[in-house]
């Protein structure tokens, strides 16, 4: 293990020697130190070099806190250019961050690549839907009309006809991401932003589910992570069926095998990459019987591909979707049949306190979830917090997602401030990077470290957060050990850069 612990025994009795009603200053120091020990990374012992870097970070943070615009207090779409200028952000980009444990497959790769690379491939057709969205389809022949798409145009022809390829490409990108210059004006409510969110997923689907594209897409996704100094991925994926140019359709297992192959190839090309696994996810809008089938299928796939399949999750907006309890019969199948299917539930991505949806966190824990996706509502659930902490069920904190999807506007007010202050098991992730206009984890690390962690969060916090992503991953023990060793080497190189 890399973290060394030290213990300070703090006597909780008031010391003598208080003058004229004033609290004892040494007692005050002691309490402050005791409190600092409790935060994430509070017990990480830093080397002399690390302490130097930490002091530098602290000064940089003070500067950013007193700047005219404090990025975590601003909507990410406006804050992004400010963050890119931040020396803390630049350092975070270089920092080895371990694994990304909460990313959805449809939002893994930047939309620039989807548009500039994928839509320029031959045989790509586009159609504009009645509800101002787009669909793509690769086809050897003119595609037949379907219910959502009456008229398909060959993209190459259309692009030539429009004449302004840059403007045209930008408009395509607009359909594939939530990014906009006027987020407050355009997204007036959670409903509005979620609508655009689901539309963007549908728009990207026709590109990503084309079999030859899927290969390159996965490779490109791993590349983008590695460029941000991430060495491991747990990807939530529905394992869509894929299609060939002639209309041939591959079943889900083809996607899984492709994912495994591409990951192997990527690791052969990049020996310092630890690997990638899948959390099979189905949409919570599905019926109980469909989810039962999906659970049974996931059990089978996990048996057949134990090195790739990490477990199971339900995805889609919690507030408008079905609750975990609604699916209790389906989710009980593994326990009832003696099968092992780890769960990685999204839970508590809501601010509707006291509703049925709000119970998802406790239910996730009752179903022995391995981690909690978001856990935004944990603040309302002291018991769930206690259980999650006791059982080492880490929260996957995705700050930018929570802000863009309108749970919180000023990230200094994110409920995870409490979780960081008390060292709750936690990892940082990015949820839907392509939709939010981020790549890798550095932007989310920035928001968590500077905005949520505040001035108190230090280099020890960052170290523990990175290590947590290996500790709370689904990897077997021996691969975790490999991961720690790889990470440690990268970390030492990173620290020595700043000597
Ligand atoms: C698209 O990406 C693939 C693989 O990543 C690459 O071989 C190809 O040259 C790229 N094409 C364009 C038009 O950028
Ligand atoms: C959760 O774990 C407990 C303790 O190992 C076990 O008794 C219980 O059956 C599990 N529940 C489910 C739904 O898997
Ligand atoms: Zn998610």
Number of domains: 2
Mean pLDDT across all amino acids: 94
Strand pairing plus helix content: what structural class?
A: alpha/beta
In the CATH hierarchy, the third-tier topology of the largest domain is known as: TIM Barrel
Q: What's the alpha carbon Rg, rounded to whole Å?
A: 24 Å
Number of helices: 22
Q: What is the H level of CATH, i.e. the homologous superfamily of the largest domain?
A: Metal-dependent hydrolases
Give the overall shape: globular
Bound molecules: 2-acetamido-2-deoxy-beta-D-glucopyranose, zinc ion
Question: What features would you describe in this structure?
Answer:
It is a single chain. The protein has helices spanning 25-38, 48-65, 76-85, 87-94, 111-116, 155-162, 165-176, 183-186, 190-208, 211-227, 252-269, 288-304, 328-331, 333-337, 360-366, 382-390, 399-404, 416-421, 433-436, 442-452, 459-471, 477-497, and strands spanning 99-104, 124-128, 134-138, 153-154, 232-237, 242-243, 249-250, 275-283, 309-315, 343-347, 369-374, 394-397, 426-428. It is 47% helix and 12% strand. It has 499 residues and is of the alpha/beta class. The protein is built from 22 helices and 13 strands. It has 2 domains: 73-110 and 225-498, Alpha-Beta Barrel (TIM Barrel); 113-192, no CATH class. Residues 117, 120, 216, 220 line the site of one 2-acetamido-2-deoxy-beta-D-glucopyranose. Residues 1-21 form the signal peptide. One of its GO terms (biological process) is adenosine catabolic process. GO terms for molecular function: adenosine deaminase activity; metal ion binding. Its main location: secreted.
């Amino acid at each position: 293990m890399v973290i060394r612990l030290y213990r300070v025994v703090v006597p909780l009795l008031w010391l003598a020697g208080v003058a004229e009603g004033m609290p004892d200053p040494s007692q005050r120091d002691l309490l402050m130190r005791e409190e600092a020990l409790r935060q994430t990374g509070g017990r990480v012992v830093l080397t002399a070099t690390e302490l130097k870097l930490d002091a530098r970070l602290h000064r940089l943070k003070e500067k950013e806190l007193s700047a005219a615009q404090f990025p975590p207090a601003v909507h990410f779409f406006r804050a992004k250019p400010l963050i890119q200028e931040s020396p803390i952000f630049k350092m975070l980009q270089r920092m080895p961050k371990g694994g990304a444990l909460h990313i959805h497959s449809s939002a893994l790769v930047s939309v620039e690549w989807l548009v500039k690379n994928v839509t320029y491939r031959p045989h790509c057709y586009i159609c504009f839907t009645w509800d101002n969205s787009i669909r793509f389809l690769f086809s050897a022949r003119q595609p037949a009309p379907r219910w959502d798409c009456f008229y398909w145009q060959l993209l190459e022809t259309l692009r030539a006809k429009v004449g302004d390829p840059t403007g045209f490409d930008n408009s395509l990108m607009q359909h594939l991401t939530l990014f906009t210059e006027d987020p407050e004006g355009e997204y007036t409510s959670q409903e509005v932003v979620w609508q655009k969110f689901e539309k963007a997923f549908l728009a990207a689907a026709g590109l990503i589910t084309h079999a030859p594209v899927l290969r390159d897409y996965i490779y490109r996704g791993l590349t983008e992570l590695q460029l941000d100094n991430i060495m491991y991925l747990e990807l939530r994926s529905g394992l869509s069926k894929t299609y060939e140019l002639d209309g041939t359709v591959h079943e889900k297992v083809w996607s899984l095998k492709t994912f495994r192959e591409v990951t192997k190839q990527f690791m052969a090309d990049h020996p310092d990459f630890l690997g990638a696994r899948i959390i099979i996810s189905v949409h919570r809008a599905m019926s109980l019987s469909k989810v039962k089938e999906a659970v049974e299928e996931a059990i089978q796939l996990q048996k057949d591909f134990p090195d790739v399949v990490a477990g199971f999750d339900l995805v889609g907006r919690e507030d408008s979707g079905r609750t975990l309890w609604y699916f209790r019969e389906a989710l009980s199948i593994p326990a009832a049949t003696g099968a092992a299917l780890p769960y990685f539930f999204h839970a508590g991505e809501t601010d509707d306190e006291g509703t049925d949806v709000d119970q998802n966190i406790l239910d996730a824990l009752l179903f022995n979830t391995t981690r909690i996706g978001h856990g935004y509502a944990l603040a309302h659930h002291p018991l769930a917090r206690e259980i999650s902490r006791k059982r080492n069920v880490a929260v996957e904190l995705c700050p930018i997602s929570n802000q863009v999807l309108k749970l919180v506007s000023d990230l200094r007010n994110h409920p995870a401030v409490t979780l960081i202050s008390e060292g709750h098991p936690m990892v940082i992730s990015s949820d839907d990077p392509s939709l939010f206009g981020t790549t890798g984890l550095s932007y989310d690390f920035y928001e968590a470290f500077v905005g949520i962690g505040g001035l108190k969060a230090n280099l020890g916090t960052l170290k523990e957060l990175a290590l947590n992503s290996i500790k709370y991953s689904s990897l077997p023990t021996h691969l975790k050990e490999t991961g720690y060793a790889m990470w440690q080497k990268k970390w030492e190189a990173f620290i020595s850069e700043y000597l």
